[in-house]
Structures are given as structure tokens and as C-alpha cells.
Amino acid sequence: MAGTSPILHPTADAGFAVYVHWPFCLAKCPYCDFNSHVRLQPPDQARYVAAFRRELAHRAALAPGRTVTSIFFGGGTPSLMEGRTVGAILDAIGEAWAIDPHCEVSLEANPTSVEAGRFADFRAAGVNRVSLGVQALNDADLKALGRMHSTREALDAVAIARQYFERYSFDLIYARTPTQTPALWREELELAISHAAEHLSLYQLTIEPDTMFERLYKAGKLAIPDHEAGAVLYEITQEITAKHGLPVYEISNHARPGAECRHNLVYWRYGEYAGIGPGAHGRLVTAEGRMAHSTEKSPEAWLARVEAEGHALVENERLDTVAQGDEYLLMGLRLVEGIDPAVFKALSGRALNERRVASLVLDRVLTRKPGGKLACTPEGALVLDAVVADLAA
């Protein structure tokens, strides 16, 4: 899209991303707090494509002249989309902005045999990276997590992904049951790495508000490992992934050097991203400043509002310097590479408190890196929120 040159900002070199949210799932996982919805009747995909087009045009008018470096289809379950739906949305993004020749185009998929069969269509549509929601390589734990696939289906889906995509990743959840011993997690992680190419996302189970797991946990019907047990599993995760050349680069993400998820790096480096679809979030730098965006969560309400108004924003808030500095810390300190104090000062209008920095370094939760960046130590990563709160105060 021709138009005004982008407004420069301190993290402009982080890239410009587009996030597309497909909110539909076949079933709601009991641990999931994402904006996902189960419907008895499949959605009218052509109607949703038309709405995505309108919302993309709205964001392009707010942030013209950008070059898209990454696109991510998340959810929900984007692998329930038809290949032509994905292709039509990618065409619309290309009409809204220029596309970098090396643009990363990722799509989240569930490893059921039906959805894995669509990988060829997604590749033809323009997807060049998939992220599989494997979550466990143990059938009993998969059932406990509410997943609809088996270990065998998951590994088969990974094999199919390998046929169509040079770049793929998959997720595992650990610290998920009290019976998951360090030995069992070592064995499972070794198996996972033997099937991984370049990237793994490894999350500790957390009890999120308004989920089935929260209700079960509060009722005393669900037990999870305590903090100490979780910390042991976290340390094992770092040890094994590093041994196999997949070191941690963000608290829950591991990759071979150069194979990091480029889309998520835009978030963590505090770049700009347009969020499209029901319940999507965005951060765009406009003539009014850096804006926080979020859209209507209900798919049907989102659709009706986009058709009536051209967009479904329910939040369009200008972030002040304090908020920008806080967000930069919260996102950037998730990364092993850390944050640049000069960028923090440019965003927030104030320098970091050197006394607090020195104290956190002394406590071994923060470290100074070559070039002047500050990063959490492995111990600091376990108490990230406290480190951020201390620096932001």
C-alpha cells in the first residue's frame, strides 16, 4: 500500500507484524483462557474473510506505509480454516501493506489427522511455518489436559509438518500433574527433541482465571506440582534443550540460533503489530502516538460490528510514556538478549534507576551484557514480575 512514511519510534527496527485471530475450536481445553469458542455449526468462512479484509483496511489507514515482516494465524484453532481462507487473508494483507520477501507466515495447528491433512493447502496458500499444539507426549496426560489427539497422532502430525514446512515448532506443557517426575519429564523432552527441527515452546502449566481448571483447582479436585517441583522441571528443561542445541531465548521458547520465532520477537522487542479478528490485540504507532488496540471478543458481535462500522475496536487507547516504558520492560526482559536502557529512556522519558539496577545485579537476578543491555539471569527469569516491578518503580 502506497502512502505516508511510517512514524519513527525507538523500536522501529523490531519489525511490523500482523496477527490474525481465528476464534473457533472443536472443543475448549480446560486450561485455556484464550478467546476461543465452540460452535455447533461451522462459521461462514467467506463472510469472515470479507470482515477480515475490512478490518485490515482500517488498520492500514491508521498505519500506512509499513512493510510486514511476519504474519501469525493464532486462535482458537486456525487449522480449522480452509486453505483458500488463509490465502484470501494473506492476499488482503498484501493489499494493505508491502510484504517483506522473507516474511515469516506462521499458523497454529492441532495435531489431529484431519487438520494435518490440510498442511499441503496451507503451504500452497503461503504459510511457511507451523506451530503444533502437541502439549504432551503421554496419552494419559493428554486426556487430563482435555486434548483430542493421541501421542501417535501428534508425532504423525509432526512428521507431516516436516514434509511440507522447513520451519515448524510444537508446544509442550510441563509441571502439569504431581506424577510428572523429573525422570519422566527428561524422557519426554528427549523424545520431543528427537522430533523437533529448530524450535520448541515449553510452558509450565498455570491455573488461569475463568477456566475449568481454575474451578477444579479451587474445589480441591485438581492438583499441580508446587513451586519447588516446577523450578526443578524448569532447570531440567534448560539443561536438556541447551545440550541438544536448542537453548532458551525467551522464558518459554527454545530454538537453534537463527531459528527463533520472528513474529513473537516483534512483540518481545516492542515492535508494532496489527491485531485482526475477534479478541485480537495490537500496538500501532499512529499520528496520535503509540496506541493499544483490542477488538470485540464475541465472534458474532465482532462480525456484525465490522460489517456495520468497518472495524470492531473496543479499545483504542494512547499509551503514555510510563505505560510504554513498563511494557518494554515486561516484554523485553522475557528475552535472554534483554533490554536496552537507552531504548527504555527514549520510550519512558526517564532513565532506569541505577541504584535499583545495581541492587538487582548484586542479587543475581539481573545481569549486564556486552553492549550495555540488561537481562534476567536464569534465577531472575523465575521471578520476572518482581524484577520488572522493581525496575519500573
Global Rg: 21 Å
Approximate helicity band = 40-55%
Calculate the terminal CA-CA distance, rounded to whole Å.
41 Å
- Which strand order does the major sheet show? 9-10-8-7-6-5-4-1-11
Biggest sheet, open or closed, and with what strands and sense? 9 strands, mixed
Q: Could you tell me the mean pLDDT?
A: 93
> Structural class, judged by helices and strands?
alpha/beta
Question: What's the short version?
Answer:
The protein is of the alpha/beta class.
Ordered list of secondary-structure elements with their pairings:
Elements: E1 16-22, E2 24-25, E3 37-38, H1 45-62, E4 67-75, H2 83-96, E5 98-109, H3 113-116, H4 119-125, E6 129-135, H5 139-144, H6 151-164, E7 167-174, H7 182-195, E8 199-204, H8 212-218, H9 227-243, E9 248-250, E10 253-255, H10 262-268, E11 272-276, E12 281-286, E13 289-295, H11 299-309, E14 313-318, H12 321-332, H13 341-348, H14 354-362, E15 366-368, E16 374-376, H15 378-381, H16 384-392
Parallel strand pairs: 1-4, 1-11, 2-3, 4-5, 5-6, 6-7, 7-8
Antiparallel strand pairs: 8-10, 9-10, 12-13, 13-14, 15-16
Helix pairs in contact: 1-2, 2-4, 7-9, 12-13, 12-16
Written description of the protein model:
The protein has helices at 45-62, 83-96, 113-116, 119-125, 139-144, 151-164, 182-195, 212-218, 227-243, 262-268, 299-309, 321-332, 341-348, 354-362, 378-381, 384-392, and strands at residues 16-22, 24-25, 37-38, 67-75, 98-109, 129-135, 167-174, 199-204, 248-250, 253-255, 272-276, 281-286, 289-295, 313-318, 366-368, 374-376. With 393 residues, the chain is an alpha/beta fold. The strands form four sheets. Strands 9-10-8-7-6-5-4-1-11 form a nine-stranded mixed beta sheet, with helices on both faces. A hairpin with a 2-residue loop joins strand 12 (281-286) and strand 13. Helix 1 (45-62) packs parallel to helix 2. It is globular. The model has no long low-confidence stretch (mean pLDDT 93).
